[in-house]
Amino acid sequence: MLGLALGAALGLTLESVDPALATAAADIARPVGRLWLNALQMTVVPLVVALVVLGVNTASDAAASGRIARTALLAFVLLLAGGAAFAAAAAPFMLSLLPRDAALVEALRGAIGTPTVPAGPASLADWFSGVVPANAIAAAAQGAMLPLVVFALLFGFALTRVEAGRSRRLVELFQSIADTMIVIVRWVLWLAPIGVFALVLVVCASVGGDILGLLGAYVGIQCAVYLGIIAILYLVAFAGGGESIRRFAVNILPAQVIAASTQSSLASLPAMLESAQSRLGYPRAVTGLVLPMAVSLFRITSPAQYVGVASFIAWAYGIDLPMLQLATASGLAVVISLGSVGLPGQVSFMATNLPVVQSMGLPTDPLGLLLAVDTIPDVVATVGNVTGDLAATAVVARRTGPGPA
Question: What is the residue range of 149's domain?
Fold first, then answer.
């Protein structure tokens, strides 16, 4: 928290006093933050595979593991749909409260260049065929988390059918891999104040106070939608997971801080495991299966982002969106979010937002400009994603096991 505060204060001060100096400071701090983030992320692939396999085998039998996985997937889909529906209602409502200044709209259009659009997303058939990896090693090397988790799930279930002695030795191997990755993560987290300071300094020195007019409205509304979703998630943990809101909020705070500073739910996985297992006391059979699945498949703020972006573009251009169109876009947003990555949102912003905006018949040119200011709302979005992962874990723990210790 101290590193977060100091990085933000220094970045904003430098940006306001001397933008050139702020740029120089950001150039110096950027590799430091990137080095720390890379060190944290390098453990993710082996940790996810090991934990999914262990999660399947820690349960009493394959049927119990299947129940946990099914309950988790149902919770993910329901929460994603709820988040998209909330954004479809909240974003247009908040935008309707803002006065549309024609001069500002023209300034927006004048500021928009032609964005460089990456290759379009794969078709639905290609997406489904890619769920099962042709080469699990290649999927790991490319960081393709969805097919990697599918492989790990199949491996874990198959391991329950292997002769007990051989299965036990493999389980011990995966346990050793997971334990070793956690040790490395703890070493890296000792440097968290430095890494967080550098990452936040770069963000604040680069963005600073340059977000004006309509872009400020975009940032504010996206953050408000994400904060609304976070508030709902506390209620989900209370009503669906049987948690005290205060206990849940206090014990997930460390994971939320890591999420805010790294903008990566994948990088926050070790901190989420610590919160869920050591602080909240959820069973390892649940946390070891649900959380790796969650960071690979479930980002509750992603559909909300896609719907919010489309709603903002429609508002800025004076286009009315009927409720049916918003509902269709929300369903598409849920499907697309399942293939997004748990890394900073700028990595996949264009490829994930573009199909939703296009499906609604809206201009796509503003996406390039919105990408430039996505850093600030992405911080809140990542906190929302991590909160959603832990709220879903609370629900699954209550439905499939004894719940908190």
Answer: 2-400
